[in-house]
Specification:
It contains five helices and 18 strands. It is of the alpha/beta class. The chain has one domain: 2,3-Dihydroxybiphenyl 1,2-Dioxygenase, domain 1, CATH 3.10.180.10. The protein has a nine-stranded mixed β-sheet with strand order 14-15-16-13-8-12-10-9-18. The chain has a seven-stranded mixed β-sheet with strand order 2-3-4-1-5-7-6, with helices on one face. A two-stranded antiparallel sheet has the order 11-17. The two termini are 36 Å apart.
Length: 329
């Protein structure tokens, strides 16, 4: 499948401070082998690195995620990248807000800025490559549409491997969606793209990014937790190949094919071994560096999808909160 780099130059909104990319997520799971099997089947390049797993997309040197082992599944840290010239300015702004800055966690050598958000998610902000797209990411069929007199599909034997091209976004349960939006606007300089009341909100970066790089769903007073990690695979055909590939390897519980209203992306979600989800995504809306996206409050019926199969009954279940409350997941 064609690699999508999206690199045509550096986008930077002049005179405004904000993160440009969600650079890396760090998630803890109880069983690294189960994670290795799941993410490999999903089509990622999973590498064993220093007692953890690095999650890469094939053909791309950027590490999108690090998975380490621990007693319970949780988001350990989220790293955002900024432009070098913004580092001191953002650091000063955060200090001015009297947010407590922390030393790097044990095992991390970094000159980044570390602090907790209001949900106790550890955040790192550091100078780094802009991995969010600089333009709307290409969308289409893997090989294009077949010309006349030529078969367009593959045999089942010869179908290509499904391989996501990049990490796209994540969604987390949080107790207070609107307070979280306010924090990420004020501290990280992100912007609200769209929301559904206080149930779900989608945020983008100001220097050109997808419609959302991080989204927040209401945890109804329960503990924060990961809902899903999303990976761009570039086409509806790729999404279908991904779902079939997972089924071939025994991962049958999913939700899709469908299309979201907010963000507009086509999707198929696969449930991971801990009850959260991994999304194949394609054709998500894009907010250019010079565009002020009109943020709207949408009716609840538009919060999840425009078409697709019925939601699995536990699609919005917060399994991580179960762990903290001592329930079986
Ligand atoms: Fe998503």
């Amino acid at each position: 499948m064609t690699a999508i780099t999206g690199k045509i130059g550096i986008n930077k909104r002049p005179g405004e401070l904000g993160v440009h990319s969600l650079s890396e997520f760090n998630v803890v799971v109880p069983d690294l082998k189960a994670a290795q099997d799941f993410y490999t089947a999903f089509g990622l390049d999973v590498r064993e690195e220093d007692n953890m797993l690095g999650l890469y997309t094939h053909g791309n040197a950027h590490r999108w995620g690090a998975i380490s082992e621990g007693a319970i599944k949780k988001i350990n840290m989220v790293t955002y990248a900024i432009f070098e010239e913004d580092f001191e300015l953002i650091k000063k702004r955060i200090e001015h807000m009297r947010i407590k800055l922390l030393d790097p966690p044990p095992g991390f050598e970094s000159n980044g800025i570390f602090f907790y958000d209001l949900n106790n998610f550890l955040i790192q902000i550091k100078v780094g490559e802009k991995t969010s797209p600089d333009e709307k990411v290409a969308f289409g069929d893997i090989d294009g549409s077949a010309p006349p007199n030529k078969a367009g599909s593959w045999s089942r034997q010869a179908k290509p491997e499904a391989r996501p091209t990049r990490f796209a976004h994540m969604l987390a349960f949080v107790p207070d969606v609107l307070a979280t939006v306010e924090f990420y606007e004020r501290v990280l300089g992100m912007r609200l793209s769209d929301r559904t009341g206080d149930m779900i909100a989608f945020m983008h970066g100001i220097h050109g990014s997808d419609h959302h790089m991080f989204a927040f769903a209401n945890s109804a007073g329960r503990a924060p937790g990961l809902h899903h990690l999303s990976w761009d695979i570039g086409s509806v055909n790729g999404i279908g190949l991904g779902a079939a590939q997972m089924a071939d390897k025994g991962y049958v519980k999913g939700w899709g094919l469908g299309r979201h209203v907010l963000g507009s992306n086509y999707f198929h979600y696969m449930q991971d071994p801990w009850g959260s989800w991994c999304e194949y995504s394609a054709d998500i809306d894009y907010v250019g560096v010079d565009h002020d996206w009109e943020s709207k409050d949408h009716p609840p019926e538009d919060g999840i999808y425009v078409w697709g199969p019925a939601l699995p009954e536990d699609f919005l279940h917060n399994y991580e909160a179960d762990q903290f409350e001592g329930k079986e997941s």
